[in-house]
Design goal:
rod-shaped, five-stranded mixed beta sheet, 5 strands, alpha+beta, 424 residues
Length: 424
């Protein structure tokens, strides 16, 4: 609900209550004037002396003026208003006894009971006023048994109607009070909501800024990983083959083989670098399933590095999410590249295990190993290897474990969620 609409409802309720209060304060004078005029112009049978009626009328006028008109703030003082209402009943009763026409004034007791009395006192005041009205309607106090019967009927009728109306009015007043309180609470809630929305706008802008910064950082990290997985590994392999070619000058056949390997690595690295810049998955995964790609990778690596390599697949192979397959492929490439550069291994084994919830890639070699608590071998050369591999695996919600010891070989295990991919 708009703030302006809520404020308008509160203002309308307040304006209506103000008009109602003005009515309650002005009606006594009107009733007193009507009763006095009729008492003077058309005296009822058995009416008292006019002087007494005028004196009581002036006293009633002064009483209402002092307690209601001149001191409206006294309405909240219950004890004082109880005394006022008792005096009002006494004056109204005296006027009705001097002339039944003052029933017009006595009727004010109904209005002022609702204005100044509370709880059970309001019902009691209403009942007393009903007795006065019945007396005025019956022409004064009863003088015969029949008159007493008529007076009793009038008392019961007036009392029943008046008490019923006051009861419903009290219920309505409570509902209006509750409605007003709810409207005020709703306005306060709207104010808090508006403030929260303003705060959320600031947080949203801050989150957008952080998201842009995180996106830039993530893209930088992706490019760093891809450059390492393509250019760095490819250049390292090319250098290794060129060094081997230089050492085999006396053997033209071996030298040619190493040069051919270096040329193939250069072409393959260039293709992968272009695909990495475009954030496209590696070409081998576009034309074959992951176990076949890893088997081809192991065979080529074994041929180039003259190291025995084996791969074993357990479980039921199934298509995985492209990012998962790329992560496992890059982990295998990094582990094999590290084994070629640092392990001086004679044998490397890969195991690809398909389980219900996860897929695990284990790469083990029988090389020289290293101390996992120290600095990895590639760190001495400023490499990105294990750190980039761990970063990539964590990015898809997986975990990377490395076990090694000097002289005991190295085991790298990458475990990733088995997120399904589209069937090929």
């Amino acid at each position: 609900m708009p703030k302006t609409s809520t404020a308008m409802k509160v203002n309308r309720l307040a304006a209506w209550e103000d008009r109602e209060t003005v009515l309650y304060r002005s009606v006594p004078y009107f009733g007193l004037a009507v009763g006095t005029a009729l008492a003077l112009l058309a005296p009822a049978p058995g009416a008292g002396p006019r002087a007494v009626s005028l004196g009581l009328a002036l006293a009633a006028c002064a009483w209402v003026t002092w307690f209601v008109t001149l001191h409206p703030h006294w309405a909240s003082r219950r004890t004082l208003m109880g005394a006022y209402y008792a005096g009002l009943l006494v004056l109204a009763g005296g006027l009705v006894l001097t002339s039944p026409w003052y029933g017009f004034f006595a009727w004010v007791g109904f209005l002022h009971a609702a204005l100044v009395l509370h709880g059970g006192w309001r019902l009691a005041g209403t009942a007393a006023t009903a007795v006065l009205i019945a007396t005025a309607q019956g022409g004064g106090l009863p003088r015969s048994p029949l008159h007493w019967g008529l007076w009793g009927v009038l008392v019961l009728f007036n009392m029943g109607v008046a008490v019923g109306l006051v009861w419903f009015g009290t219920v309505s007043e409570r509902q209006n009070t509750q409605r007003k309180r709810l409207i005020v609470e709703l306005a306060e809630a709207n104010d808090r909501l508006a403030e929260t929305m303003r705060e959320n706008e600031g947080l949203h802008a801050q989150l957008l800024t952080q998201a842009r910064e995180a996106g830039v950082l993530d893209e930088r990290q992706r490019m760093a990983r891809e450059i390492h997985d393509t250019l760095a590994q490819g250049l390292a392999g090319i250098i290794t083959q060129l060094e081997a070619a230089g050492q085999s000058r006396a053997r033209p056949a071996d030298q040619g083989r190493h040069l051919d390997n270096a040329l193939a690595l250069a072409r393959e690295s260039l293709t992968e670098a272009r695909r990495s810049v475009r954030a496209v998955r590696p070409e081998p995964l576009d034309r074959a399933r992951l176990p076949e790609v890893l088997a081809d990778l192991t065979e080529r690596w074994s041929t180039i590095n003259a190291v025995r390599g084996e791969i074993n697949t357990t479980g039921t192979p199934r298509p995985l999410h492209p990012e998962i397959e790329v992560t496992l492929l890059r982990a295998a490439q990094e582990a094999l590249a590290n084994a070629a550069r640092h392990a001086r291994a004679t044998r490397v084994g890969l195991t690809l295990s398909y389980m219900e919830d996860v897929v695990t890639l284990d790469v083990r070699d029988d090389g020289v190993g290293f101390d996992p608590g120290g600095r990895p071998p590639e760190s001495a050369e400023g490499g990105f290897g294990l750190a980039g591999m761990r970063q990539r695996v964590r990015r898809v919600g997986g975990r990377l474990a490395v076990e090694s010891e000097p002289g005991g070989g190295t085991a790298v295990s990458a475990t990733v969620p088995a997120l399904p991919g589209a069937a090929s």
